[in-house]
Design goal:
The protein is an alpha+beta fold. The protein has helices spanning 6-14, 22-36, 63-75, 115-123, 146-156, 164-175, 184-195, 205-216, 266-274, 283-292; strands at residues 38-39, 60-61, 81-87, 98-104, 110-113, 224-231, 238-245, 250-256, 260-263. It folds into two domains: 6-156, Roll (C8orf32 fold), CATH 3.10.620; 164-292, no CATH class.
Length: 294
């Protein structure tokens, strides 16, 4: 698979709309880069340098490389200055400090960008939550509303028929159905069949599973959700294992780039493990062993 996005990055820079203001130009770069890049920190060296002038730029990058690329792309726009900054986040998921960007406009106003956290939203046609939404305490930092985002997206030719409203409506409808009357497995199957059409076929593993975990499963799945990744050592392909349970029953689902989100079983997951797929944390092995003694 050709994952070189160097030409796409240069296309974004060369096609920044000129009849736009500075924030609209920033938005153009931010959304378009968000459509083509993917977060994959486990496979990369945080110290790897990447530049928009490189002939090869992988679509798989860490927050550090994404921040560096965004710096270069935005600093090509006259009148603005973009720098990388460390942002305090949950260190559980980061070997080094998380990086975001601060852009200073020609007026002296500043906006904070964190593209990594918007990748699942951009790639699943939802409104961004990290484009000028964060107040870092600086008196010159401005907040950009979702209304302003939509106005810019419309002007820039991006799709403004976001999934957000449809997803909120679906969650409302699910809450007001008598789903508790259904057996647990049947209820979970029904809910997942309702939410999985929201997952874009164009997003990669990390963005898809983050979208499932942080958007689709929130306020929809009743029960306790355990999540583990298993990895094929031959090609680094990943499968996300979801074990959804209540006090009595449990239901298994998996997500992969090839088969997307679908119903699975404990036996199927055990077969993957016996075939050499591994769970880096070891937590899935412990869960399966404890389940045997139930």
């Amino acid at each position: 698979m050709n994952d070189n996005i160097a030409d796409k990055i240069r296309w974004i820079i060369n096609n920044i709309p000129q009849e736009t203001n500075e924030i609209e130009k920033i938005r153009w770069v931010y959304i378009n880069l968000g459509k083509i890049i993917s977060y994959n920190y486990k496979e990369l060296d945080f110290k790897t340098k990447v530049s928009i002038n490189d002939n090869y730029i992988s679509k798989y990058q860490t927050c550090i490389q994404v921040s560096d690329l965004l710096n270069e792309m935005l600093n090509s726009i006259d009148g603005i200055s973009c720098v990388s900054v460390e942002r305090q986040m949950d260190k559980k998921y980061f070997d080094e400090a998380h990086r975001s960007n601060v852009v200073t406009l020609s007026t002296g106003e500043r906006i904070v960008l964190d593209l990594i956290y918007d990748l699942p939203l951009i790639q699943n046609n939802c409104q961004t939550k990290n484009f000028g939404f964060f107040d870092d305490g600086d008196i010159n930092t401005i907040i950009i509303s979702t209304f302003e985002d939509k106005q810019m997206d419309s002007k820039l030719g991006f799709n403004t028929d976001y999934n957000d409203n449809r997803l909120r409506e679906l969650k409302y409808n699910l809450r007001h159905q008598d789903l508790d009357l259904l057996p647990f497995e049947e209820r979970i199957d029904y809910i997942i069949n309702q939410i999985k059409p929201f997952i874009s076929n164009d997003c990669d593993f990390v963005e898809a599973t983050n979208f499932i975990d942080n958007e689709l499963f929130i306020d929809t799945i009743s029960g306790f959700v355990i999540r583990h990744n298993i990895i094929n050592p031959d090609n680094n392909e990943r499968i996300r294992v979801y074990i959804i349970s209540d006090a009595i029953d449990k239901v298994w689902y998996t997500y992969s780039n090839s088969e997307r989100l679908h119903k699975s079983s404990e036996a199927t997951v055990v077969k993957y493990i016996s075939d050499g797929w591994f769970n880096r944390s070891g937590g899935l092995y412990n869960y399966i062993e404890k389940a045997k003694g139930r």
